[in-house]
Design a protein that fits this description.
Elements: H1 3-39, H2 41-44, H3 51-64, H4 100-112, E1 115-120, E2 123-128, E3 136-141, H5 145-158, H6 170-173, H7 175-181, H8 187-193, H9 202-226, H10 231-234, H11 253-268, H12 275-291, H13 297-319, E4 322-323, E5 326-328, E6 353-355, E7 359-360, H14 365-377, H15 382-385
Helix pairs in contact: 4-9, 7-12, 9-11, 9-13, 9-14, 11-12, 11-13, 12-13, 13-14
């Protein structure tokens, strides 16, 4: 056998052995994973059916029967379960005992309760029943096609910002990495910035989750009503860097969600000075969608306005605060507008934005409970959150 053939034979044998070893390891890992699923908490919760686990639990329980007191779990040994329901109907305290997904459903219902949406004239408005008189808190109109054509030119030019390999600055050199990482929910960017650890700040994460949920529901209602086309539908030369979502462009969902989260975290962490950094991150997330080719700059502006309103609304529902209604009149855009680098819109400098007088919002006891718990995770006392 030639040296080449011998080497090839050895390589083939080694490859086969390696493959067999890998298959064996994978099989063992798979078996271990399956055993864990059947015999661990996954099996006990019936997420995976494990009759063997149930039989083993019953067997062990019967062996302990002689030493288990009749009031086990409710009496002298310890108290894992309350003997009676809370005296007050709809008291918030039981929220701490509910599993996270059920608690999230209760809180989501509370946050969305009372919101109403309707067309008015050439636009649409969001109203709420948790303010006296059911007032409108956000109004928005549709931009005209001439403005969209001008905006599409800006989007087409922004494609050059995706990759700039000669730059010495990472944030400039490879923006495409951010765009791809933020295509789905960019919650990791907020967690990395502050930072937020799920084991230590679960209530903060639940609050952020509510921000994303409310913003998504509201933004989609505006998107549907206004039905604004995407940049590539206006300017055929635009080639988006990522798949364009299958819904309307205006307002930007990423912008709405980012500014909702920024505003709520700013209030949650008060009096710490985090506002500028949080709003700059929100601005970056929003404008990355423009560079990606899936949003107009005015989409980001509208999302900033809507997200700011929703942040105020969430905080007010948690703390018995106030919200300042606003109207974004897109017919007053001239086509050259871009979201400020600060991530803040000033009504006096933005002729398309009108802000009204503050309206008192009725707080929710359930949402106030979550706010207190989240504040405590950052070292704030319950009194400081009031």
């Amino acid at each position: 056998m030639s040296s080449f053939a011998s080497a090839a034979s050895a390589a083939s044998a080694a490859s086969a052995a390696s493959a067999a070893s890998a298959a064996s390891a994978a099989s063992a890992a798979s078996a271990a994973s399956a055993a864990s699923a059947l015999n661990g908490l996954t099996g006990y919760s019936s997420a995976a059916i494990g009759p063997g686990l149930l039989h083993a639990i019953l067997s062990t329980r019967s062996w302990l029967a002689d030493v288990l007191p009749q009031d086990w779990g409710r009496g002298r040994a310890f108290s894992a379960h309350p003997l009676v329901s809370p005296t007050e109907i709809d008291a918030p305290d039981p929220l701490g005992r509910w599993q996270p997904d059920c608690r999230a459903s209760v809180l989501a219902f509370e946050l969305q309760a009372g919101l109403m949406f309707e067309p008015v004239g050439q636009g649409v408005q969001l109203s709420t029943a948790v303010c006296a008189g059911n007032p409108a808190i956000m109004g928005m109109t549709r931009p005209d096609h001439g403005v969209l054509r001008q905006q599409a030119e800006l989007v087409n030019q922004a494609a050059a910002l995706r990759l700039q390999p000669k730059s010495d600055t990472l944030a400039v050199r490879d923006r495409l990495g951010e765009i791809c990482a933020q295509a789905e929910s960019p919650i990791a960017f907020w967690c990395a910035l502050l930072p937020i650890h799920p084991a230590r700040m679960k209530h903060t994460l639940e609050l952020i989750g509510l921000c994303f949920q409310l913003a998504s529901v509201v933004e989609q209602r505006f998107k549907h009503a206004l039905a604004v086309p995407r940049p590539h539908e206006v300017h055929p030369a635009i080639v988006p860097a990522i798949l364009t979502p299958g819904h309307g462009s205006f307002p930007s969902g990423h912008s709405t969600e980012a500014f909702t989260v920024a505003g709520v975290l700013e209030a949650l962490l008060a009096p710490q000075s985090v506002s500028e950094v949080l709003h700059r991150l929100a601005q970056r997330i929003a404008t990355n969608r423009e560079v990606a080719g899936v949003h107009f700059p005015i989409d980001s502006i509208a999302g900033c306005a809507l997200g700011g309103l929703l942040a105020e609304y969430i905080v007010a529902r948690c703390t018995d605060g106030a919200v300042t209604p606003r109207v974004l009149d897109a017919t007053r855009f001239n086509g050259t507008e871009e979201l400020p680098a600060t991530g803040r819109l000033v009504a006096n400098d933005a002729p398309y934005l009108t802000v009204g007088d503050a309206l008192q919002v009725k707080a929710s006891a359930q949402l106030a409970w979550l706010w207190r718990k989240a504040r405590e995770e950052w070292g704030a006392t319950p009194a400081a959150a009031a």
